Amino acid sequence: KMDFEQISQNEIKDEEILAASLNRPALFKILVDRYQEAFIRKAVSILRNQEEAEDIVQETFVKIYLHGKKFKKMEDIEFKSWAYKILVNTAISRYRKISKKWQAESLDPLDLEMASEKNLSTENIVLESENKSAAAELISRLPKPLARLVSLYYIEDKSFKQIAEKESLTIPALKMKLLRAKKI
User: Fold this and answer.
1) Please, are residues 15 and 31 in contact by the beta-carbon 8 Å criterion?
2) Which of 90, 102, 155 is nearest to 126 (CA)?
3) Contact at 8 Å (CB) between 18 and 71?
4) Strand partners, 74
5) For the chain, how are helix, strand and coil distributed in percent, rounded to 5?
6) Residue in 90, 31, 104, 33 with CA at minimum distance from that of residue 57
7) Can you tell me the distance from the alpha carbon of 120 to that of 135, in angstroms, rounded to the nearest whole number?
8) Each residue of 68-124: pLDDT tens digit?
């Protein structure tokens, strides 16, 4: 058992502080002090709003503390990356919540018409629109032949069979190319 008062706080690893703070909650402040500024910067970069970012950082620290027992130090998983993952996921969830209303107000009328034909809710329309935007951004980074296949599948919603016929590929070859594109 460590005596945290006798050891310099900089010498104590994050994982050890987290574990000790489960029995002595006041020690968790050390982690808050270490990460709060960086977390706020990251949250602001996602949310583009200082107050929302500060709320998200508080929520993140609560989640880290509440789930502290679940964290296990492994060779390729450090506290820092685990904590940042919680922060980013929390911030993205908040961003989506905030932006849904805005996006619902600015949706393309054609998207709304197609959605009504498919019996989709406004939330699903927004999610579909977000997914297509994210996919388009990622597709633009791919080599042209792979980008075309990915675009047909994810943006134009073509089936494997339709794409394979159009591109003169077998379905297994198409799946392999899409898997390769996904890895890239």
Assistant:
1) no
2) 102
3) yes
4) 77
5) 75, 0, 20
6) 90
7) 20
8) 988 876 766 788 989 999 999 999 888 888 776 555 554 555 554 455 455 555 555
The backbone torsions φ and ψ at residue 8, rounded to the nearest 5 degrees and listed phi first, read -60, 135
One-letter amino acid identity for 174? L
Does the predicted model carry a pTM greater than 0.90? Answer: no
Q: State the first-to-last Cα distance of the chain, in angstroms, to the nearest integer.
A: 45
**How far is 111 from 53, CA to CA, in rounded Å?**
31
What single-letter DSSP state applies at residue 178? Answer: H
Reference 38, options 61, 21, 20, 16; nearest CA is 61
Whose CA is closest to 47, among 122, 97, 103? 97
Owner of token pair 């502080």: 17
pLDDT in tens, 14-24: 999 999 999 99
Buried-exposed string 12-33: b where 16+ CB fall within 10 A, e elsewhere: eebbbbbbbbeeeeebbebbee
Which residues are paired to 77 by β-bridges? Answer: 74
User: Token digits for 171?
Assistant: 């379905």
